[in-house]
Amino acid sequence: MSTIRCRDVQRRFGRTVAVAGVDLAIAAGEIYGLIGPDGAGKTTLLRMLAGVLRPDAGSIHIAGVDVVRHPEQVRDLLGYMPQRFSLYADLSVLENLLFYADIFGVRGAARRERLERLLAFARLDAFRHRPAGQLSGGMKKKLALACALVHRPRVLLLDEPTNGVDPISRREFWDILADLHLEGVTILVTTPYMDEAERCQRVGLMHRGRILRQDTPAALRALVPGRMVAVYAENLPAVAAAVTAFPGHRGHHTYGDRLHVFVDADLADPVAALAAHLHGRGLPFRQILEDAPRLEEAFIHLLEHDPGL
Q: Is 28 a domain residue?
């Protein structure tokens, strides 16, 4: 049985279709990543799952409970972390945690033990008396997560939880999520970062209110046709112009100091063939090697080849 189950969920805002018939099933203890551009409908979908918005059509169940019919029952099952920092800036770290403990009825010895554990778990123990408004961006995210966990929810809904924070804080945040995953918590997270999506067990690619495809990161990367060759060179614009004339060229993307070139799958030795192609045009390069496409490239491929777009 799925811990999160959506069937044909729809939501409009006037004439704008925000969510257009989403079907979703997330197993207990799974980390599921939802990626897509701004306006894809990710936040609207999470808000409906959390019971903040009512769907116009379709059904949503969390751990078997109907979110629309029994929102109060679902509240104790869920931890919801919206995009924007929604805690009290004038209250300290500990006071924010105490406030959320009061909301969810966490009292007595269990309350003291749980708050101490969360402070240590989120690495905020040394900052317990600091006003939340004076925390760094990464610390604010960890405090928001700790508040969402104060009642020990079975399901976590996280809307771009690391957006705008530094790489070290992002890594620390995901280390915490990994620990929660090991404890059996079901996690649905939206993220603009493809490296974070790679850490999920399954990923859904969302665009214009619907999920185009969902699978493991490896399976989604395998959707990109042909083979990919990475070219490391100084003059990437010249190399990019030259590869368009390469036999079997399917497309290319620039990533920092390299060019990802997609070629036909039936090429016997694409590395040697592409090296000869560039040598013939007098274009030097540092290295050419065959590589695997990124999740981002799989997403771009789906967007470019979806007949409904």
A: yes
Sheet with 155-159: strands ordered across: 78-81, 155-159, 186-190, 31-35, 202-207, 210-215
Q: Is residue 308 part of a domain?
A: no
Clarify whether residues 73 and 154 are in a common domain. Answer: yes
Separation in Å, CA 163 to CA 44, 47, 80, 83, 144: 17, 18, 16, 8, 13
pTM: 0.86
Cα gap 179→269, rounded to integer Å: 43
* Nearest of 163, 237, 187, 141 to residue 49 by alpha carbon: 187
pLDDT bucket at 286, cuts 50 / 70 / 90: very high
Indicate whether 206 and 268 sit together in one domain: no
Q: How confident is the model at residue 1 (pLDDT cuts 50, 70, 90)?
A: low
Length of the chain (residues): 309
Note whether 187 and 282 are same-domain residues.
no
At 220-229, the pLDDT tens digits run 998 888 899 9
Q: Which structural domain, as residue segments, surrounds residue 281?
A: 227-292
Share of the chain above pLDDT 90, in %: 64
